[in-house]
Design brief:
Blueprint (H helix, E strand, L loop, with lengths): L15 H9 L5 E5 L12 E5 L7 H6 L10 H7 L1 E6 L6 H11 L3 E3 L2 H7 L11 H19 L5 E5 L2 H12 L15 E4 L17
Parallel strand pairs: 1-2, 3-5, 3-6, 4-5
């Protein structure tokens, strides 16, 4: 959620003080830890601040199986733990139906395709001239909607299409690949690909290809 924050893991057995200082190039100014920390962090920086732990969180259980301990985690952390399933496929192959029904069956949340919502707000969408910024907005908002839904998911969040599909629509409508859209691409725990044998139906946007 915070791109300015960098996370570094220290290998078991390494001296954490030396490892952190080596990666930073110097000792940090302040070191924050949870209350009851084992103590090495107090020697890492000139100033050490202990923070009271959130109530109801058993850190050993979370480290052992964060997904099983999902109910203990706050929203942002929860979103990073849940599994994500992406439904991909051509137009009118049932992606939305599969995503919605699968979420219902798993008692969890699903994320609609933002590109459809965006298209429906366009003035004279049948004549609209698409540009790269349109697809950047769609990709960014699709990811934002997904991360927000993941905060409330029951172990799994279902996603109707993704930024990769958006980049393909850019090629279709604009005529070339846009490398700047690569920044929004993600990997998912599971992909479901819908069949092109599904009978074609035009949607409310009127923009589907046959």
């Amino acid at each position: 959620e915070l791109p300015q924050v960098q996370v570094h893991a220290v290998a078991a057995g390494d001296d954490p003080v030396a490892a952190v200082r080596e990666r930073l190039g110097a000792a940090p100014s302040v070191c924050f830890t949870g209350a009851g920390h084992d103590g090495w962090s107090a020697t890492l920086a000139p100033r050490h601040v202990e923070i009271e732990r959130l109530p109801g969180i058993e850190s050993e259980l979370v480290r052992a199986d964060a997904l099983a301990a999902l109910g203990q985690l706050p929203g942002g952390t929860r979103a990073s733990v849940v599994r994500r399933i992406c439904v991909l496929g051509a137009e009118s192959t049932g992606k939305t139906t599969v995503a919605r029904d699968l979420a219902d069956a798993l008692a969890t949340v699903w994320v609609p395709e933002y590109g459809r919502d965006y298209t429906e707000t366009l003035p004279d969408r049948l004549r609209y001239v698409w540009t790269t910024p349109d697809f950047e907005i769609i990709s960014k908002r699709q990811n934002w909607n997904e991360d927000r839904a993941a905060r409330y998911a029951n172990r799994i969040v279902i996603v109707d299409t993704d930024a990769f599909a958006t980049s393909l629509f850019h090629e279709l409508y604009v005529g070339y690949r846009a490398p700047e859209l690569d920044a929004y691409l993600r990997n998912y725990d599971l992909y479901l690909l819908t069949s092109i044998e599904t009978p074609f139906e035009m949607d409310t946007t009127g923009l589907r290809y046959d």
